[in-house]
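user: Here is a favour to ask of a fellow structure person. I have my own habits and do not want them to colour yours. Could you put it straight underneath, so I can go through it closely?

assistant:
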Amino acid sequence: MTGKYKEQWINYFEGGIEMWSYFGYKYHSYIIVKNILPELNVPKKGKLIQMGTGLGVTVELLCHMYGEDRVVGYDLFNPLGHSNIKFLDTTKTIPSDKDIAFLEIDICSMSDAREHRKNLLTWAMTNVKTNGYILTNKSLAHELKSQWNFDIINLNEFDIPDIWNNPHENRINTKVILQMKAR
């Protein structure tokens, strides 16, 4: 691995920040998809997208739940070689996907890329179908609420033990699911 992404690869996949244990089956994305998505009326047609896939365990779960033909993940890396994960640097390119049933935005960090995540959420608002869902940051959702038509579903509304095992790591208070309404 050379070039621009080498340092990130070293940090995430060669032990720098222990991604192998951090982005696995206990990561908030996986727990939310496994436990909350089945409780929602996800549209029967449309893509299910994870932006920021980590190891890819959530993408694999989405494939199992909804079919491989509907699922795509985007990330800078694909360490396990999952066929549904595509390389994409969202700081340079926005996906061309339309007709999205579910989208998670877990790219970069809110502490240093707030505007980038806000731009991705704005893009998502135009590409997630009516009654589709977006898993995103609560503060950004509230910031954009006056400009878009969506309902906010708070994670703490669900009585699911896996989510409550570690509320901080599972993002109960910082993430929300948005359900898009007619534009």
Notes: The mean pLDDT is 86. The two ends are 44 Å apart (CA to CA).
